[in-house]
Amino acid sequence: MFEGVNIYAVKGAARITRKETKPRTVHHRDGTTSTEYDGYETELVPFKTTYNEWMTSMVNSSDPKDVAFAREALGPTRFNLVKSGQLEMNSLYYGGKLRTIKELEELI
Questions:
Q1: pLDDT of residue 15
Q2: E-assigned strand segments in 1-108
Q3: How far apart are CA 38 and CA 24, in angstroms?
């Protein structure tokens, strides 16, 4: 359908991103809990925006929904490290893997 089209050259090109909404806690028989989402929202993000740029914008957003999403996606410790400026988003990963909290503390 889009064969031969350079999507990077299309002015205003955007891609869809999905943000889950309405989290609820699920209690399992073994006593553990997890978060399940009842729905999701979509929004268009400029095509050249990286994950790190997008997630940083969620962390620093004035919209409480964006901030709540970022906190849930990153976890409270990683979120606070990025929000406070102690670490940048790209330092949360190494070799495509998420660094542990202990590894992140060593970077500070």
A1: 64
A2: 14-27, 33-46, 93-94, 97-98
A3: 8
Q: Are 83 and 89 in contact (CB under 8 A)?
A: no
Q: Is 11 helix (H, G, I), strand (E, B) or coil?
A: coil
- pTM of the full structure: 0.63
User: Distance between CA 36 and CA 68 in Å, rounded?
Assistant: 14
Q: What is the pLDDT of residues 65-95, one digit of tens each?
A: 888 888 888 888 999 999 999 999 999 988 8
Per DSSP, the three-state class of 10 is coil
Q: Tell me, what amino acid is at 12?
A: G
Per-residue confidence (pLDDT) for residue 17, from 0 to 100: 65
Long-range contacts of 81-86 (CB under 8 A, 24+ apart): 81/108, 82/56, 83/59
Contacting residues for 98 by C-beta, under 8 A, at least 6 apart: 92
C-alpha span between 9 and 76 (Å, rounded): 38
